[in-house]
Amino acid sequence: MIVGLLTGRGGNSTLPDKNVFPVLGQPLMSYVAASAFRAQLLDRIFVSTEDPKIKAVGADLGLEIIDRPEEFARPDSQHDECLVHAVEYLADKGVEVEILVVLMCNVGIQPEEKIDECVQALLDDPELDAAVTVREWGDHHPTRAKRASDDGLLSPILDVDPSVTTTRQLLGNCYYLDHQVWALRVSRCFKGDGQPPWSFMGKIVKGIPNGDIVVDVHGMDEIRYTELWLRGTSEGQ
Question: Is the dihedral of CA 99, 89, 55, 221 positive or negative?
Fold first, then answer.
């Protein structure tokens, strides 16, 4: 079975109740749910959360609720903990998940064609462990990344060869996961031996290029950006 799983927890400190924060008059997570329901390749759609407000909104939206244990909903909890819990919970209910499509409740930029594109990639190629949306971002190549000391002094994050070029075009392509869609082949994931830092995704991960600049909402700047994107689509009209 191909299962869509929205994930979100309460207790956010930077923007309280961000997952149900009103965006153009609707809870943020409602845009994620709407996209999941419009996708053609999802058999069932759930939300994993410990938060009563998210559960209430999820039920109103027609999502099936997975009650996430508090131990997997702490600020320091790892995302894969709630994913493994969801898969095991569904297995106990007789639902064997072949492909798990992870959609974050705080990512309102969710065109449904990307959900189907990621799932179709796994259906077309049985060698893939996962297919995820990515954004090409050469300006943010890792060789350019810096960390700052307490007094603001910069130093390279990576151990970079001093001869490395400063010309972006010569650095090669650079892709970042944008957290819009993760499609995971359950039988091949969650073994802990995949590409870091998302080692649960497996070793053979296909990037699905995304034209949208996707943001996951943590504050009002991301809320405003999401509203701008939605106003340019049918969801925001």
Answer: negative
